[in-house]
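Batch manifest line 387
LIGAND: pyridoxal-5'-phosphate
JOB: complex structure
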Amino acid sequence: MAPAAPRLVPPYIEALCPYEPGRSAEEVQQRYGLKNVVKLASNENPLGPSPLAIEAIQARLQSIHVYPRAGLSLRKALAERYGAKIENVIVGSGSDSIIAAIVRTFLSDDDEILTTEAAFGGFQVTAKSRGVAYKTVPYRNWRYDLAVLADAITDRTKIIYVANPNNPTGTIVTRGEFEEFHRRVPDRVLIILDEAYFEYARGERDYPDSMQYRFDNVITLRTFSKVYGLAGLRVGYGFAHESLIRNLLKVKLPFEPGVLAEAAAIAALQDDAFVGRSLGVNALGLQYFENALAERGFQIVPSRANFVMLVFPDPVSASEFTERLLEAGVIVRPLASFGLPGCVRISIGTKEQNRILINAVDSTQAVTLPMFPAAHGKEMAEASLHI
Ligand SMILES: Cc1ncc(COP(=O)(O)O)c(C=O)c1O
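JOB STATUS: finished
ARTIFACT:
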């Protein structure tokens, strides 16, 4: 028998569950033998990409034999757009990639990461891959509990991660809550304020746009994957104090983002008409879902993003719901991999896609699932929802 292989993989990597992306329409079409499938699972822009971005990609196609310049032009464009200096801006292949660079840049072995339970799955995986302590505090009414998060800071806390709006719950922390929280966080702790869904919430009076707070220990992350419709290209960006950015740039992979991604992002940044249309479609869809799903007895968490989260009384009901919708050709996102096996996230689609989802919910009435009576958590078993 061959000798046992040396232990190459650290135990915290062996124990890591990889990030599970939402299922693709092609996969579901094949598996269930369906002609049409609607994917409302990954918080993508249902209108597609920004048209200006497509034009910019076409114009750059002849240049893809040349290495990118580390996103320099995009950094400049973002600095101009947001009234920052280029030294305060970082860009990368998605905000995921910037999160990875942050984890590699700022953490030492004895440091701790602190965040909410069931935080954005991409963050969880990247953070846990560093092998440092990963601590969480519970949600309060599906919102980050910033007071308890501040109480949980120890001498070893190095990074606190707050997504605002939050994925998967869709809730926000308010301006007042954030300001109070920031006062309680020591300067030696880095706050990652992940604003992937910022465009959807920035119109809200109580939403704290972190660009209005240029705190030295806060890094703001944003993305072109959502309202700009460029998820497949992979472009994200961040703003922070120049000393943080300078060190991040040492660690970040040097050629991100690619030339087509950068050209598309620069063009998309100017595409106010597309962003406006996207926000309009989202606002109508969000309202439609909140009303239609609440009318049908679902417990729905009020959202400020481009998705909604449903809370089921137990994991079995949540996975049956997801499975029934798959059979009807609608992909939604089960949240077990985030740590919420009793919840399901649904992205807002076009008007037509949203109707298809609600019709699919109605047409699978043969199965009766135990549900919460509207807003309460009691007597779940008695309440039933027909899906
Ligand atoms: C809160 C949050 N942060 C970051 C990301 C990753 O975005 P990107 O596509 O820029 O890597 C997502 C994507 O779903 C997200 O929901």
